[in-house]
Amino acid sequence: MYKPATIKDIALALKLSPSTVSRALRDEYEISAGTKKIVVDYAKSVNYKSNPNAVSLKNRRSYSIGIVVPELANSFFSQAIAGIESIAYEKGYHTIITQTHDSSERELINVDHLANRSVDGLLISMSSGTADYTFLQRLHQDGLPIVFFDRIIAEIDTFKVTSDNFNASYEATLSLIKSGCKKIALLANAPRLSITNERFAGYQKALLENDIPLRPDLIRNCLKGGSDDQEVEDAVNELLSVRDKPDAIFITSDRISISCIRALKKLKFDPQEIMVLGFSNSDVVDLLQPELSYIRQKAFEMGEIAVNMLLKLIESKYPITEFETRILGTELHSIKQQR
After folding, report:
1. How many CB atoms lie within 10 A of CB 119?
2. What DSSP state is assigned to residue 264?
3. pLDDT of 138 over the 70 cut
4. What does pTM read for this prediction?
5. CATH number of the domain that 218 lies in?
6. Domain count, the chain
7. By the 8 A CB rule, do 331 and 166 touch?
8. Which residues are in the HTH lacI-type domain (predicted)?
9. Rounded distance, CA 98 to CA 268, Å?
10. Does the residue 335 lie in any domain?
11. What is the rounded CA–CA span in Å between residue 197 and residue 202?
């Protein structure tokens, strides 16, 4: 079976590093003219240009950007994508959007598919199921521009943009405490995600500063991130069944917030007994019953910033070695509840 040559194949044959081959094919300034000619001539001889989306070996710009998100049905991600596209189309780039459903296997397949279609760069918000980032590190080392947004990782040195998750959760938990709550349950996403850990840390700090013990029996993680209503309903049932049950539930995920409200309504809980506060960018959050106090993230702005960062990497004629991580503020919308 015919297998197209890869950058690694060319590098091995010419005894060069994959990054040198990648830069030579992109006609970057730091690679000598002689090396570029050797690489390009060899690449042509092994039909490296077989990808129909490649414009040429000298200028492989496809003017397309790959976007990898956990779920399109999530209000936050749909708004972030709108922000990405508002800038991308203005700059002459098309977007190819994929969703992982928080599966590491699907994420690997999607990223591999986008890379093989010769996208100029990737915008990615990590799946909750991914623990091994080798496939992304390899692409990054091969020269593919990558920017992380919302769910970011420390393992790859590049541009990143996310929310001020720590302070958002800290202020939200304080607001529940000021409302008289002392037994605040936490309903969170998968524990390996950056956003989960940052939001847990803010929740924990608010409790400790107010001499409220951290109770493991009031903490639940939903590994499927709210896409499985039954998983969320089971978690809510467990929280409401503990001996000293909570007087508030703090939800640290957009999709889980909606699933939690649905579960509480199904369980016919008394909203006078338990206050509910969660992250949500839903356009109809103010219409939910029972009511939800919520934290709104700047999703559209995050998308705009992320794509501008990526375009900076794609279009720069010189290597970029200094990167920043942008932290965006959030908005807390509290609903007055009678206690």
Report:
1. 25
2. H
3. yes
4. 0.80
5. 3.40.50.2300
6. 3
7. no
8. 5-59
9. 37
10. no
11. 9
